[in-house]
From TrEMBL:
It comes from Mystacornis crossleyi. Residues 59-100 form a coiled coil. It is found in: Nucleus. GO terms for cellular component: nucleus. This is MAFK factor. It holds the Pfam family bZIP_Maf. It comes from the Eukaryota.
Amino acid sequence: LQVKEESGENAPVLSDDELVSMSVRELNQHLRGLTKEEVIRLKQRRRTLKNRGYAASCRIKRVTQKEELERQRVELQQEVEKLARENSSMKLELDALRSKYEALQTFARTVARGPITPTKVATTSV
C-alpha cells in the first residue's frame, strides 16, 4: 500500500483495481483507523467502481445477446426462404398432378361410355 498525505493525515491510497478486488473483510481491515469521512469516501468510490464494472459487463452481455439473436434471425430467415422455395415447388408439382388426374378422369369417362356407334348416335340424338 502506498501512503499519501491528505489534509495532514496519513491515509493509505488504494488503486482502483485493489479497491474493487479486495474482499469486504480486507476492506474493513483497511478502513480501521480512518476517519468517518475517509471511510465513506472509500466505500463510495468502491461502490462507484463496482457499479462501473457491472455496467460494463451488462453492456458486453447485451451486445453478445444481440449478436446471437441477429445470427438466429438470419438463420431463421434463410430457413423461411428455403421453405418458401420448397412450398412453391410443391405447389407446381401439385398443379401438374391435378392436371394429370383431371386428364385421366376425362379419359376414363370416355372409355367407360364406350365407342360411339351409329345406333347410339341415333338413339341419343332423338
